[in-house]
Design goal:
- The protein has 255 residues and is α/β, with parallel strands linked by helices.
- It is built from eleven helices and ten strands.
- The protein has helices at residues 29-41, 66-69, 75-93, 110-117, 144-152, 154-163, 169-174, 188-200, 204-218, 226-236, 239-254; strands at 5-10, 13-18, 49-54, 59-61, 99-103, 106-108, 120-123, 128-130, 166-168, 180-181.
- The strands form two sheets. A six-stranded mixed sheet has the order 1-2-3-5-7-10, with helices on both faces.
- Strand 2, helix 1 (29-41) and strand 3 (49-54) form a beta-alpha-beta unit.
- 41% of the residues are buried.
- The mean pLDDT is 92.
């Protein structure tokens, strides 16, 4: 694993960190493949819990890596990228023990999809979460819309997707998207460890059973969704998407 993704196992906890803080931890195709590989490789390990976070204090994952994803130009390439991202997030959804997303900063677009693919979410007081894909003239890419519906219901999910509204940590908690929020000024690392501690004390076989029960009763089904892939590919390859992407990249270049 390269330095863009840090992986460690400590006392029965798998710790995975997106490690490009200078770019706000974007999700490139390589990063998605690495996430998939890490979670698939650790399925058989003696773990009670996994925690996923971003490096630094600004961003959990600010969305897709537009510099990389700008190269995805044809419907075939868009469908392949959809399959890659969906497979990466499905490896998290299907992980045999709970996965906690520790939102140390913004989780936007694909980063929000990554967050809701996890079983639980906790957040720093300054964190923000938003399904802002509509600002790029695309739908959710990797199954995050289904996760959102499972968490907040169809009407609230449609409102969040259609408005592209960015929620504060407190608003996300009130909406049922975040389980716990650190106090203003509280050390986030200490907050994360305090939250994880009760789970980490459980035996691996018990946490596997809990995850299986929750997955069976509470999670959205992510079985074959070819229509999702086709709708995504059509939107991705539309001129409206390229114009929005070019505008964002131009703004970034001028900073």
């Amino acid at each position: 694993m390269n330095d863009d993704l840090l992986v460690a196992v400590e006392a029965g906890v798998l710790r995975v960190t997106l490690n490009r803080p200078e770019k706000r931890n974007p999700l490139s195709r390589a990063a998605l493949a690495q996430l998939r590989d890490v979670f698939e490789a650790h399925r058989g390990a003696e773990l009670s819990l996994a925690v996923l976070r971003g490096a630094g204090g600004r961003s959990f994952a600010a969305g897709g890596d537009l510099r990389d994803l700008e190269q995805v130009r044809t419907p075939e390439q868009a469908r392949a990228m959809h399959a890659l991202g969906t497979g990466a997030l499905q490896a998290i959804r299907a992980f045999p023990v709970p996965v906690v997303a520790a939102l140390n900063g913004v989780a936007l677009g694909g980063g929000a999809e990554l967050a809701v693919a996890c079983d639980l979410r906790i957040a720093a007081a300054h964190a923000r979460l938003g399904f802002v894909q509509g600002t790029l003239n695309i739908p959710t890419a990797w199954g995050g819309g289904h996760d959102l519906v499972a968490l907040v219901g169809p009407a609230r999910a449609l409102e969040l997707l259609g408005s592209a509204r960015v929620l504060t940590a407190a608003q996300a908690q009130a909406a049922g998207l975040v389980e716990a929020v650190a106090a203003e000024g509280e050390d986030f690392d200490a907050f994360v460890e305090r939250y994880l501690a009760p789970f980490a004390r459980q035996r691996p076989q018990v946490m596997r059973a809990f995850k299986a029960q929750a997955a069976r009763l509470g999670r959205a089904r992510h079985e074959a969704a070819p229509r999702d892939a086709e709708l995504f590919a059509q939107a991705w390859c539309h001129d409206d998407h390229w114009a929005a992407t070019a505008n964002i990249l131009q703004k970034e270049a001028s900073r």
